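Subject: design request, 290 residues
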């Protein structure tokens, strides 16, 4: 059967978190670069679909393709790791310093990947900077300002709002990461992870990596947004909210819910030597995992 039981999923979450934290700096940077660029590709695909159909839901339906590519190729998305690596820390398999280092290098990779795609895509829709008539130019400018200046205008309430929207976003994004672990088939993984990602994007919640692309590109195209506006009124609070949403509502909640069923490493495998028949032959078991 393709279905993976919750106890095994929790074990996989912890193991995956440990593996991600122990990647080399080069691997974290390269995987973060690709993850950021691919998610930026998916963002422009969603914006294009919305503009062509005048239906925002269409954009939400196609956006998860980027997330699917990232997960299936084993690339890095720091927002997904927010639910996984802290569990490895909780289980004392990874140090807090190692976790923070992993997050930092992946975020740097995301920023570079998003910047590269932003420059290339910006040159594409402006025809090498010669015109600003492409319909997505104004969309990106308005989006960049809405994700920064609109919160700034509200002051403290704006900061609270952006953090709440970031929490809600990554609750779903990390759930998408976990849902991909509930199936052993490629099709099952795609379907399972698609749904939570659609939910977050359709409702306009705040995702740190998407914003690493959208806001700077809007600035390059002429948005009235400063570097301080970008980081103080969006990027930093969104990273905080994404972390809280991932670690609390997905990581810790599932850990508490399924801890009693947690299967660790060899505990999840059938011990064939203990199940030997009287004549010494091991019983044939369909599948290695319980």
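Subject: RE: design request

Done. Sequence follows.
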């Amino acid at each position: 059967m393709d279905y993976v039981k919750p106890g095994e999923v929790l074990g996989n979450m912890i193991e995956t978190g440990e593996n991600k934290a122990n990647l080399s700096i080069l691997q974290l940077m390269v995987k973060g670069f690709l993850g950021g660029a691919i998610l930026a590709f998916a963002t422009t695909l969603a914006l294009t679909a919305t503009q062509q159909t005048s239906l925002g839901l269409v954009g939400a339906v196609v956006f998860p393709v980027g997330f699917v590519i990232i997960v299936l190729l084993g690339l890095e998305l720091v927002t997904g790791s927010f639910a996984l690596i802290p569990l490895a820390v909780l289980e004392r398999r990874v140090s807090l310093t190692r976790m923070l280092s992993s997050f930092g290098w992946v975020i740097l990779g995301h920023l570079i990947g998003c910047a590269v795609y932003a420059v290339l895509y910006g040159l594409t829709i402006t025809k090498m900077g010669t015109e600003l008539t492409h319909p997505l130019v104004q969309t990106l400018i308005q989006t960049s300002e809405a994700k920064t200046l609109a919160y700034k205008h509200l002051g403290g309430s704006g900061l609270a709002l952006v953090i709440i929207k970031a929490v809600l976003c990554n609750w779903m994004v990390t759930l998408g990461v976990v849902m991909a672990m509930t199936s052993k088939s490629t099709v099952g993984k795609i379907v399972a992870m698609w749904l939570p990602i659609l939910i977050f994007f359709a409702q306009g919640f705040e995702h740190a990596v998407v914003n690493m692309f959208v806001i700077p590109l809007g600035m390059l195209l002429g948005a009235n947004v400063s570097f301080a506006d970008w980081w103080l009124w969006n990027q930093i609070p969104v990273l905080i909210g994404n972390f809280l949403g991932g670690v609390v509502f997905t990581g810790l909640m599932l850990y508490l819910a399924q801890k009693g069923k947690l299967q660790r490493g060899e505990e999840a495998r059938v011990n064939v030597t203990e199940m030997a028949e009287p004549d010494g032959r091991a019983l044939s078991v369909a599948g290695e995992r319980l």
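The two ends are 11 Å apart (CA to CA).
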